[in-house]
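Write out the 3D structure for:
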Amino acid sequence: MPALTPAVCDAITYVRSLTAIRERCQQMLDLACADRLHHFAYHPEQLPAVAAYVAAVTREAYPTLEVPFHSRWRHFDVGRIDRVAQLNAHLGACSPTERARCHVDLVITSVLLDAGAGADWRYYEARSGQTYVRSEGLAVASFNAFLSGFFSSRADSPWQADARGLQNITEAALAEAFQVTSNNPLVGLSGRATLLRTLGAVVEDTPQYFRTGTAGPRLGHLFDYLSVHTCAGVLPARQIFLAVIESLAPIWPGRLSLGDVNLGDVWHHNQITGQGRTAGLVPFHKLSQWLTYSLIEPLIAAGILVTGMDELTGLAEYRNGGLLLDLGLITPKHDAVLTQIHSPDSQVIVEWRALTVALLDRVATPVRDLLGLSAQEYPLAKILEGGTWRAGRRIAREKRAAGSPPLRLVSDGTVF
């Protein structure tokens, strides 16, 4: 690959930043405020009703308002089962560092398998006798796969996700682990399997992130990388995000690129302006941020103080976005928005996701006011959990029997 020019390097650095996500999504909201978007209208008068709905859902779920951070770890407890305690029991008296590595192995694989499952997929957990769907189903399925050694190449170290184990995953093996059949289809199965194999190759090829000493390459060694980059035991959340987005950049399929560098969850919109090669580009990095949120807890458990979490944005996914549509904060400008099926690169989806990110920041303030909490007491990570994601699921079930999102989406298993 030819050397990148300084202009291209600057453009890549910008679209991979948290600053760019907020700036470009705010630009989309500014267009909506001026009624210049093609597909959506913005109704700020609905903001109090959205905030009230979110606050009510939060109080119902967390009466004491002791809300945890929004992360993948919440889903491992579904059915009131402490599955992480089960994993820790298997790990036994290992060192705190090795436990943190195992937790990082688990959460990265689980997050990367967490794109929308579709309305028809189910996962039956024999040990609990319970059946789970959607994000919780994917969490339980990925947890049980991890516990069985699915992501490891070593029988003597089953509770890890190493390069060779990931590269050996086939679509058929993933289908079996996730109970996929013709009668139990999982959206984006092939894309998920490909993503895991590509992840394994990346883990092998980037030792600066995923190898420690003479130990073989595995995802859990990202903990070691982040530990080295702490300063007096403190690590800014943006540093975690940067490590995630730089180390995992090559895994994303068929996306926009600059200088042959894959940009990941970045899309084009013809009304968005910007300098040089960034013109028209709208970054979201949804799974990268979801992973960043989910890495915070193992780091804290290992004694690292994570700061600046509100630099992370709300997540541009269909529960948060569905909340805004279902409660009328944004509305479609034409019938095709709701009647047609849209791909991630469509202008409809780019507008919807950008408005979601920008409006979650606006919803946050009145939600805090209604709950009587400050921004410091109630960061965005708690608003999402309390919260907008939960409220989006609630209103979807109230409006549609299957609880599906208001828009019809095409997913390759790596976006939504």
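The chain has a mean pLDDT of 93.
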